[in-house]
Design brief:
The complex is a heterodimer of chains A (about 350) and B (about 300). Chain A is α/β, with parallel strands linked by helices and about 350 residues long. Chain A has a domain of about 230 residues: Rossmann fold (3-Layer(aba) Sandwich), CATH 3.40.50. Chain A is about 35% helix and about 25% strand. Chain A has 13 helices and twelve strands. In chain A, strands 6-7-8-3-9-10-12-11 form an eight-stranded mixed beta sheet, with helices on both faces. Chain A has a four-stranded antiparallel beta sheet with strand order 2-1-4-5. In chain A, β1 and β2 form a beta hairpin. The relative contact order of chain A is 0.13. Chain B is globular, with a radius of gyration of 24 Å. Chain B folds into two domains: about 70 residues, no CATH class; about 210 residues, MetI-like fold (Orthogonal Bundle), CATH 1.10.3720. With about 300 residues, chain B is mainly alpha-helical. Chain B is about 80% helix and about 0% strand. In chain B, α1 runs antiparallel to α12, α5 packs across α8 and α7 packs across α8. The chains are: A alpha/beta (about 350), B mainly alpha (about 300). Chains A and B meet through α2 and α4 of A and α9 and α10 of B.
Chain lengths: ~350, ~300
C-alpha cells in the first residue's frame, strides 16, 4: 500500500435527478478512492447507483440530472468545479469509459478507424498519418487480428467481443490513467467475457491503468478486483479488499449477495435470494435503507441511518451491527434465528 | 446491385399500370369531352361523327385497351384542345415545374435542417417552442392562401416581386417559397424528432465520453444517423410539391405542368391529363429510387438484396 499514487478520489458525492415526482437522489454520499494500477470493483443490484456514480465521474450527467454535492478528484483536479469545456479536455484523455453494450455504444455509420482516430485528433497533436498509424497500433494492442482491415470496417461487421475490444482501444488510445468499465462483459458470451477480462488485466499490468469495474457479477469481481465496494440504494454499504469481502462479508446485504450466487463446490436444492426489492429512490425507507430486507434488523435500524464505520484500514461498513466493533455475521445470524424462532 | 435494380424496375411496372388505369377510369366517368370540344350549334349528327372518330363510342375496356396499346409504344395520344402530341406538350412544360419544384425543395431543406437541429439540441427551450409552433403553422397554412398573402404583401404593397408570370428569377421566388413552406415544416418536425431519438442513443454518450466537441457530436455523430429517414421523407415530399405545384402554378400563372393540368382537366383533355399524371408519377418514382440508393450509401448496414 505504500507509494501508491492516488488517481481518483470521490468524496461525499451526491447526484440527483429532477423528476415529476420531485428530486430523486440516485447517489447519496458516496466516497471511495482508486490508486494507480488498482482495480476497484463496484457491485450492487440494478438501480443501486453504480452507473450514475460512474457517469458523474465522467461528466456525463446532464439535465434533468445534476451533481448536488461532494467532490471528485482526478489526480490534482476537482472535476465538479470544471466547466463543460474544461471537462471535455479531460474526457477521453485522462479518463475514459467503456460501456455495457458494445454494439450500440459504437456509432453504426462511422468506421472503426474514424471512431478511434477522432479521439486522437481531439486530444493529441498528431499528423493525419500518425493518427492512422497509432489507431492501428491501438487495435493491435487490444488483440484485434488484421487491424489494418478492421480500421476500415463498420461496427456491425465485427463480433461482440471485437466491438468491445474496439471500445477498449478507443478508451486507452490517449493513454488515460483511469478506465471506467460499466458492465463491460455483461452482453458477451462467457468465453469472450474471459478474454475481455484478461485484456483489461493486461492493460493494468502493462500500462498501470486504474480500472473502476462496475458489475453485478460477483464472479467477475472475484477474478478481477483488488478492492470491492458494495453499493445499495445509492450508498456505499461496504468496502474492503476482495479476499476479506468474500471470506467474511460484514454487511448483511453483502452476505445476501454472496448467498444468492451459486458456488460450484456446493450442492444446493434452492438458491437463496434476498427477500424484497431495492427501494424506490423517491420513497426511501427510514433509518438504514436495507432494514426492510435485512434478516438481522433491529429497532435502531428502522429509526436511525447508520454511518460508514471504519473497522480496519481499508475495511468499512455502513451497519449498526458493527458500530461497537466488528461482529461475526454468521454468529449474529445464528443468534437471531435462535432468539426469533 | 443488378438484381436490386431489376427488382426495383419490376416493382415500378405494376405501379405505373395501376396509375394509368385509375386516371383513365376517373376521366371516363367524369363526363363527355365532346360536349366541350364542339360548338353549341353542332347537330347531333356532327357530335356523333366526332365521337365515332375519337373512338368514344367503344366500350370502356376497348377504349382502355387502345389507349394502353398506344402507351406501350410511347404514344400518349393527341390533345383534343392543342391538336398536338400530348406527351410533347407536357415535356415542354416539365422544365418549368422541375425548376420551381427543385427550388422549393432546396428552400425547404435549407430551412428545415438548421431549424430541426436547433430545436432538438435546445429541446424545451424558447427556441424549440418557437420552431415547433412555426412548423405547425407552416404545415397548416394552405398554399393558395399563402400565395395570395405573399402577392398582397410583397408584390402589391412593397412591389418587390412581380405578381405573376415567368421570365426572370424574381418571378420564381414567391411561388417557390409558397411551395416550400409545407415541406419545410414537415421536414423540420421530422428532423427534430429523429435528432431527439438519436441524441439519446448509447453511441452519443460514447462520443461525449471521448470529449468530442458539441458540433462534432451534433453533425458527425447525430445528424448523420438521422439522414436515412430524412432522405426517405424528402423524396416522399416530392409528391406533395408536385401536387402543391398545381395550385401554386395556377395562382402565380407559372407556365408549368400544374397549370397545364388544371386547364386540361377543365377541358377534359384526357390525353394531356394522362400524360401529366404519368410524367409526375414517373418523376416521383425516380426520386424515390434516388433516395433509396442515397441512404444505402449513407448506411453501411443496408445491403443491396
Amino acid at each position: 500500500m505504500i507509494n501508491r499514487q492516488k488517481v481518483l478520489e470521490v468524496r461525499h458525492l451526491q447526484t440527483q435527478f429532477r423528476t415529476e415526482h420531485g428530486i430523486v437522489r440516485s447517489v447519496d454520499d458516496v466516497s471511495f478512492r482508486l490508486d494507480a494500477g488498482e482495480i476497484l470493483g463496484i457491485v450492487g443490484e440494478s438501480g443501486c447507483g453504480k452507473s450514475v456514480t460512474s457517469f458523474s465521474i465522467m461528466g456525463l450527467i446532464e439535465a434533468p440530472g445534476e451533481i448536488a454535492g461532494g467532490e471528485i478528484w482526478l489526480e490534482e483536479q476537482e472535476l465538479t468545479k470544471l466547466s463543460k469545456r474544461q471537462l471535455r479536455k479531460l474526457q477521453g484523455k485522462d479518463m475514459a469509459m467503456i460501456f455495457q453494450e458494445p454494439l450500440t455504444s459504437l456509432n453504426p455509420l462511422l468506421t472503426v478507424g474514424l471512431q478511434i482516430s477522432e479521439v486522437l485528433t481531439r486530444h493529441k497533436r498528431l499528423s493525419k498519418r500518425e493518427v492512422k498509424e497509432q489507431s492501428i497500433a491501438m487495435l493491435r494492442q487490444v488483440g484485434i487480428p488484421r487491424p489494418e482491415q478492421v480500421y476500415h470496417a463498420y461496427p456491425h461487421e465485427l463480433s461482440g467481443g471485437m466491438r468491445q475490444r474496439v471500445m477498449i482501444a478507443i478508451a486507452i488510445s490517449c493513454g488515460s490513467k483511469l478506465l471506467i468499465a460499466d458492465e463491460p462483459t455483461t452482453a458477451l458470451d462467457v468465453t469472450i467475457q474471459a478474454q475481455i477480462l484478461k485484456l483489461m488485466k493486461e492493460l493494468r499490468d502493462n500500462l498501470n491503468t486504474s480500472i473502476m469495474l462496475i458489475t453485478h457479477d460477483l464472479g467477475v469481481v472475484a477474478e478481477m478486483a483488488d478492492r470491492v465496494i458494495v453499493m445499495y440504494a445509492g450508498q456505499v454499504v461496504e468496502e474492503g479488499d476482495v479476499y476479506e469481502i468474500y471470506r467474511s462479508p460484514k454487511h448483511p446485504y453483502t452476505k445476501g449477495l454472496m448467498n444468492s450466487t451459486p458456488k460450484i463446490e456446493e450442492v444446493r436444492r434452492k438458491l437463496e435470494s434476498i427477500p424484497g426489492t431495492v427501494p424506490v429512490l423517491s420513497n426511501m425507507p427510514s433509518g438504514c435503507r436495507f432494514h426492510p430486507r435485512c434478516p438481522v434488523a433491529r429497532d435502531k435500524c428502522r429509526a436511525e441511518a447508520p454511518q460508514m464505520k471504519l473497522l480496519r484500514p481499508g475495511v468499512q461498513v455502513r451497519c449498526w451491527l458493527h458500530q461497537e466493533g466488528e461482529v461475526e455475521l454468521n454468529e449474529e445470524f445464528k443468534r437471531r434465528a435462535a432468539a426469533g424462532g | 446491385m443488378k438484381s436490386y435494380l431489376l427488382k426495383y424496375v419490376l416493382q415500378v411496372i405494376p405501379v405505373l399500370f395501376i396509375i394509368s388505369f385509375l386516371v383513365f377510369f376517373l376521366i371516363f366517368i367524369a363526363g363527355d369531352p365532346v360536349a366541350l370540344m364542339i360548338s353549341d350549334n353542332a347537330t347531333p349528327q356532327q357530335i356523333e361523327e366526332l365521337r365515332e372518330s375519337l373512338g368514344l363510342n367503344e366500350p370502356f375496356f376497348v377504349q382502355y385497351g387502345l389507349y394502353m396499346q398506344g402507351l406501350l409504344q410511347g404514344d400518349f395520344g393527341t390533345s383534343f384542345s392543342y391538336k398536338q402530341d400530348a406527351l410533347q406538350i407536357v415535356l415542354e412544360k416539365l422544365p418549368n415545374t422541375l425548376l420551381l419544384g427543385s427550388l422549393a425543395m432546396l428552400i425547404a431543406i435549407i430551412i428545415a435542417i438548421p431549424l430541426g437541429i436547433l430545436s432538438a439540441t435546445r429541446q424545451n427551450t424558447a427556441w424549440d417552442l418557437l420552431i415547433s409552433g412555426a412548423s405547425v403553422i407552416g404545415k397548416a397554412i394552405p398554399n393558395f392562401w399563402l400565395a395570395i398573402m405573399l402577392i398582397l404583401i410583397f408584390s402589391v404593397t412593397f412591389q418587390l416581386f412581380p405578381v405573376s408570370g415567368s421570365g426572370t428569377v424574381m418571378h420564381l421566388i414567391l411561388p417557390a417559397f409558397t411551395l416550400a413552406t409545407g415541406t419545410a415544416a414537415e421536414l423540420t418536425r421530422l428532423i427534430r424528432s429523429s435528432m431527439l431519438e438519436v441524441l439519446g442513443q448509447d453511441y452519443i454518450r460514447t462520443a461525449k465520453s471521448k470529449g468530442m466537441s458539441r458540433s462534432l457530436i451534433t453533425y458527425r455523430h447525430a445528424f448523420r444517423n438521422c439522414l436515412a429517414p430524412v432522405i426517405t421523407i424528402t423524396a416522399m415530399q416530392a409528391s406533395v410539391i408536385v401536387s402543391g405545384a398545381i395550385i401554386t402554378e395556377t395562382v402565380f400563372a407559372w407556365p408549368g405542368m400544374g397549370q397545364l393540368l388544371v386547364k386540361a382537366i377543365s377541358l377534359r383533355d384526357m390525353a394531356v391529363v394522362q400524360a401529366v399524371v404519368f410524367v409526375s408519377a414517373f418523376a416521383i418514382i425516380l426520386l424515390n429510387f434516388i433516395a433509396d440508393v442515397a441512404y444505402r450509401l449513407i448506411d453501411p448496414r443496408i445491403k443491396y438484396e
